[in-house]
Specification:
The protein is an alpha/beta fold and about 375 residues long. It is about 35% helix and about 20% strand. The strands form 4 sheets. The chain has a 5-stranded mixed β-sheet. Helix 3 links the parallel strand 6 and strand 7 (about 115-120). Residues about 1-30 have low confidence and may be disordered.
Length: about 375
């Protein structure tokens, strides 16, 4: 091999080494123990000696990474050999939470006082959060999609938990902020227990790893027990969910967590062949054509008044064409007066129980529903 070839090979090796040190090749830049996740597909956790690496897959671009976080305990000196990623000093002490879902989860860890800011206050059905906001102990940081940066800086927040969206173009002025933006992509998981398992990551962020593990183990046990009860049933009703919003009906995809919960309740779902793990924006006519003969209709809504068959017709007279409407098999969940959105994403066993009770009335051992009630 000539001198020029040796130099070329040396330079190439240096570039590979540099790329590894910058985190483009995680296997070469660090080693640790991989935390085994049984259900979550969009999350990887590797515990190293002085830090933990959490990688979020990009749910919209297969094979790509959405974000990498390097969790370093705040009572330890920052290691000098960290891989590439957003450094998060844990536990978080002054977090801004943009969704009621994650507020409820963090409170279940017993970390109420670590919440220092929230968004979309009027949609958070948690009395403690509402009172803390009134007492100015928790800051109102504006809209959950475009939080108020000045308020976040004013309260000296150490991180913000915010939901990422496909083709959102980033987080606006929040991108100027120098603190960690934790992207809560759990809602893009394709199974209910997969989404719930993300609580292990959030537990690490808030110094509540043991609490998170304990809660998840309980949820997993209950969910799988309910699934077996439903599986033994000989009946199988079809289910449609939600209703039109303005001119669009947002239908959960067949690979969404709600789509999978319906399947686990041993019920059929007209849109199960749609592979999206998000929602499909469909016109009324498309939903009527594909799901008009569904046996049961589950509606989530937010209103000071309970929905009735009359009020549904006032919204859209076309609802009368649905089989479930004609046969009085419509069940409503009024999120104005219950904590459905705060509870069910990380406690899917409770929602599964409701759907089993409704779709399998012959099963009488599960008691009454918690969120859905028969519309009159």
């Amino acid at each position: 091999m000539n001198k020029q070839s040796n130099i070329t090979l040396l330079l190439f090796s240096m570039l590979i080494t540099l790329a590894s040190c910058r985190g483009n090749s995680t296997e070469a830049s660090y080693s640790g123990d991989t935390i085994r996740l049984k259900y979550a597909k969009q999350l990887q956790i590797i515990k190293c000696e002085d830090y933990t690496v959490v990688t979020l897959n990009d749910p919209w671009k297969q094979g790509k990474t959405l974000h990498t976080y390097i969790l370093v305990p705040s009572d330890k000196k920052l290691p000098s050999n960290l891989p590439q990623g957003t450094i998060v000093r844990t536990p978080l002490q002054r977090a801004v939470i943009t969704t009621s879902v994650h507020c409820g989860l963090i409170m279940s860890f017993g970390k109420h006082n670590n919440i220092k800011g929230v968004c979309d206050v009027k949609y958070i059905n948690i009395p403690w959060i509402q009172q803390q906001c009134k007492d100015k102990k928790i800051a109102d940081c504006g809209n959950g999609i475009t939080p108020t940066l000045e308020k976040i800086i004013e309260i000296n927040a150490d991180a913000i938990l915010i939901s990422p969206f496909q083709n959102s173009g980033g987080y606006g002025r929040l991108n100027e902020w120098k603190k960690p933006i934790i992207e809560t992509a759990d809602y893009m998981e394709t199974s209910a227990l997969g989404r719930a398992e993300w609580m292990k990551f959030y537990g690490m962020l808030f110094g509540a790893e043991k609490q998170a593990d304990s809660i998840f183990n309980d949820v997993e046990t209950k969910y799988n027990h309910l699934k077996q009860i439903a599986k033994a049933s000989k009946t199988k009703h079809s289910v449609i969910i939600d209703k039109i919003n303005s001119s669009v009906w947002y239908v959960p995809g067949g690979k969404s967590t709600i789509g999978q919960i319906i399947a686990d309740a041993n019920a059929s779902y007209p849109f199960s062949d749609e592979k999206s793990s998000g929602s499909l924006a469909l016109p009324f006519e498309s939903v009527l054509e594909k799901a008009g003969n569904s046996d049961i209709w589950l509606i989530r809504y937010n209103s000071p008044q309970k929905a009735t068959y009359k009020s549904l017709l006032t919204e859209n007279s076309g609802y009368a064409q649905f089989k479930a409407f004609k046969e009085n098999m419509v069940f409503g969940c009024n999120t104005y007066s219950n904590t459905f959105y705060e509870d069910t994403p990380f406690h899917p066993d409770v929602l599964l129980r409701d759907i089993i009770i409704i779709t399998h009335p012959e099963i009488t051992t599960l008691g009454e529903t918690k969120y859905f009630e028969h519309i009159k």
